[in-house]
Amino acid sequence: MARIVIVGPGRAGMSVGLAARSAGHEVVALAARRPVETDLARSIPLTSSLPDAEFVFVAVSDDVIAEVAKQLHPPGGSVIAHLSGRTSVDVLSPLGNKIGSMHPLMTLPSGEIGAAALVGAGAAITSRSEAVAGALSVFATSLGMRPFRLPDEAKAAYHAGATAASNYVVAALAVAEQLLDAAGVPLSIAEPLVTASVSNAGRLGSLAALTGPIVRGDIGTVRAQRDAARKAGVEGPFVAMGTATALLVGNWEVMREVLS
């Protein structure tokens, strides 16, 4: 089992750290700007010399990874990887050539919830070194994750897709919740519908799984839905999502009148 250092023990860092401990790895330090109170590992200053470890995971926000990398003093021989799905691995180049990234394809709302959710989740592995990519893949597998290789130049498209698959789906459910509330119906009653829709998208492909009045070209129904969305205070996002649906299924010319 490996020795691990987590730099930036926020939600992602703690998720990986707790999952690593559960898998039998040793988290030897949590490096942060301010002291962290946790039983996971000892807290050390960000700028101190990091202890010996097989892996150093940089789990700070995307915009400061490059800045933090310049402040780190890792031990020789460590694999150093950030957890970003968007940022190039090259931002870690000041730390040597054993660098890469491991992005958990999972929403991580807290350390405890995130650690449990990592089991079965995808792990996007990026490195210009085959040895580093292999080591990160083995580590991800040890956490119960499903590693896959992601080219550095594909990160932007991948991360946009991940955002759409998570946040945009939840945003759609927020719109649905307000509309159902207006009808006196709880969102929970629609959970089987949501689950079936996601399952169909996985089995058939997203476009083939789309159903409903926009796909059918039912202008009258969409007009009535838009009126209901206006009264519920969600007309803007409802129309935006309807427009996206019409464009994706090639039915925009039919729906333009009611969605413009």
Topology:
Elements: E1 3-7, H1 11-22, E2 26-32, E3 43-45, E4 55-58, H2 65-71, E5 79-82, E6 99-105, H3 111-117, E7 122-126, H4 130-142, E8 146-149, H5 155-182, H6 191-204, H7 206-209, H8 213-216, H9 219-232, H10 235-248, H11 252-259
Parallel strand pairs: 1-2, 1-4, 2-3, 4-5, 5-6, 7-8
Antiparallel strand pairs: 6-7
Commentary on this structure:
It is a single chain. The chain is α/β, with parallel strands linked by helices and 260 residues long. The protein has two domains: 3-150, NAD(P)-binding Rossmann-like Domain (Rossmann fold), CATH 3.40.50; 156-259, N-(1-d-carboxylethyl)-l-norvaline Dehydrogenase, domain 2, CATH 1.10.1040. 48% of the residues lie in helices and 15% in strands. The chain has eleven helices and eight strands. The chain has helices at residues 11-22, 65-71, 111-117, 130-142, 155-182, 191-204, 206-209, 213-216, 219-232, 235-248, 252-259, and strands at residues 3-7, 26-32, 43-45, 55-58, 79-82, 99-105, 122-126, 146-149. An eight-stranded mixed beta sheet has the order 3-2-1-4-5-6-7-8, with helices on both faces. Helix 4 (130-142) links the parallel strand 7 and strand 8. Helix 9 (219-232) packs antiparallel against helix 10. The longest helix is centred in the middle third of the chain and has 28 residues, at 155-182. It is elongated. The relative contact order is 0.09. The mean pLDDT is 95.
